[in-house]
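Table S2 (continued). Query chain:
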Amino acid sequence: MKEENIDALFKALEGNFDTATPAAGHKERFLEKLQPSGVVSIGKKKKSWWKPLSIAASIAVLFAVGMGIVNSNPSIEQQVADISPEASQSHFYFASLIEQQVQELESKSSPETKKMIEDAMLQLEKLEANYTKLEQDLLGGGNSKLILSAMITNFQTRIDLLQDVMNRIDNINNFNTLNDENFTI
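Corresponding output:
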């Protein structure tokens, strides 16, 4: 029904539309008429800094929120330190002691001891994986005294392993030195 009214309206107005192009300078005359009232200014548009500034502020807020979420998840070491500060201190002490022994072990590497050192490193990796599992168990709410005892035992086992390998390497080096002294040309 409405479509019929619109069609009828356009048929009635057919031929009465103003389709001529405006005379030269029409736009300028129109803008001059608007000028005194202060509605429109002639010339370039002012650049608005509001939009770019609001976009930059939004990005900064999103970045800050994202960093807050990323930093809000404490590491396993931080969580263990919250549960037991002593465990964190002992971890630091034992880890530094083990690192020193590993460096000393690697400095004594020779063709005769290379395989022994590689095997010791594999055992250390297994013990480290076991320690990580113990940390997860501690965070999971297991028996904390028993788990902390197992963690310390794990460190002691690593230290004992390294000392045993060091003693074996020293024995091999001493044996080679004695053989070299007894050998004559």
